Amino acid sequence: MIKKMGIQWRLRHLMAARDLFQTTDLVPLLAERGIHLSREQVFRLVTQPPQRLSMDTLAALCDILDCTPNDLIEVDVVNTEVRKTAGQPEQTTGPAPAVRRTTIRRPDLP
Known about the structure:
The chain is of the alpha+beta class. The protein has a single domain, classed as 434 Repressor (Amino-terminal Domain), CATH 1.10.260. About 35% of the residues lie in helices and about 15% in strands. The protein has 5 helices and 2 strands; from the N terminus they run E-H-H-H-H-H-E. Strands 1-2 form a two-stranded antiparallel sheet.
């Protein structure tokens, strides 16, 4: 059995609970704590779960929102049973990639 882990990023929800409704509201609050991110970076941080997050940024967010990392990140465990048996093809998770013909070009020789 394979245990698949997922997360729910709750930053937007916690911001709304503190009357912070615009992502740009977070930029100066982070800067006060030594975290200098562009408006675009903060927008991505608020609107989608980050793949990587520095501990300094996490600590600053927790300080700003008066919360803990557990309040920001909710871990979901999704149990998916995948058992391989002899003779069964592997299960794929999506459509097969499109086939593209490759052309190899050689430089003209003098």
